[in-house]
Amino acid sequence: MIEVENLNFSYNQQISFIENVSFHVGAGEIFGFLGPSGAGKSTLQKILCGILRNYQGSVNVLNTEVKNRDKEFYEKIGVDFEFPNLYGKFTGLENLRYFSSLYDRKSLDPLTCLERVGLGEHANKKVADYSKGMKMRLAFVRSILHQPQLLFLDEPTSGLDPTYARLMKDMILEQKKEGRTIILTTHNMHDAEELCDRVAFIVDGKIKAVGEPLQLKDHKRAVEISYAYMDSEVMKTGKAVLANLQKDELFMKQLQEGRLRSIHSKEPTLEDVFMELTGRRLV
Ligand SMILES: Nc1ncnc2c1ncn2[C@@H]1O[C@H](COP(=O)(O)OP(=O)(O)OP(=O)(O)O)[C@@H](O)[C@H]1O
């Protein structure tokens, strides 16, 4: 679906910003770009969807070197960028009708799309009067309107309240179920963990690691557990090393004598792993 080999890109022709980036994305995958602000996530997306074309190396998307993309390429991709480009003087419905008229492919029904993201009752309101979250939802359905094979989503849950963020995540997973490939840009590790089959850690225009969230987290396993136990009517706590649990006399004694009341292990988050591998925080 996507093959990137030795990609280099610079905004000012002097200092290379994206450096020697290579990765692939398989059909049907949700692939995440995870990194702090300014890491180059949006730049990479813009290269992949043919907006920035003065790159070196090879960027093959849907069997097209994106430098040479044509109109047909845009029939197959859907793009939802962080700052949605919508027509403020048109209503939500007029926006979707206009965008669907740009494609040769059969589009989804605009009103049904609006209803799906809770904008049905605002279909005839001017987009200039929409809130940021409403614009985000409109931009998302605009990107899936023509049922593209490949979707680029840039921070699709940013600015949304928890209910709509949930709805958006469910819709993204639905798109995957329908066979679409999705490139998801985020600095939200929870979204990345929940949605992505694989993620790329991006810092300073470079990919520092790629893998499945669980596999990346396995790199930094929980090392210690804490537990609580009853000792002569008094609740006490203890700590033990996970790998040596069977040799920990105090822990084993409480276990065997049935006095354990709780056990907790501190699981690493994707952010912990990100920090360990890149030396940087996500935000
Ligand atoms: N058009 C441009 N001209 C020059 N520099 C740019 C341009 N667009 C982005 N940059 C620079 O490229 C770097 C990466 O920006 P980019 O938008 O790709 O980061 P990002 O990881 O998407 O960040 P965020 O999470 O804040 O959106 C930043 O230093 C930014 O200032």
TrEMBL record:
UniProt-listed Pfam families: ABC_tran
Domain ABC transporter, residue spans: 2-229
PROSITE patterns membership: ABC_TRANSPORTER_1, ABC_TRANSPORTER_2
Any one GO molecular-function label of the UniProt entry: ATP binding
Domain of life: Bacteria
Gene3D superfamilies in the record: P-loop containing nucleotide triphosphate hydrolases
InterPro entries: AAA+_ATPase, ABC_transporter-like_ATP-bd, ABC_transporter-like_CS, ABC_transporter_ATP-binding, P-loop_NTPase
SMART domains for the chain: AAA
PANTHER family associated with the record: ABC TRANSPORTER ATP-BINDING PROTEIN, ABC TRANSPORTER, ATP-BINDING PROTEIN
UniProt-recorded name of the protein: ABC transporter ATP-binding protein
Lineage: Bacteria, Bacillati, Bacillota, Clostridia, Eubacteriales
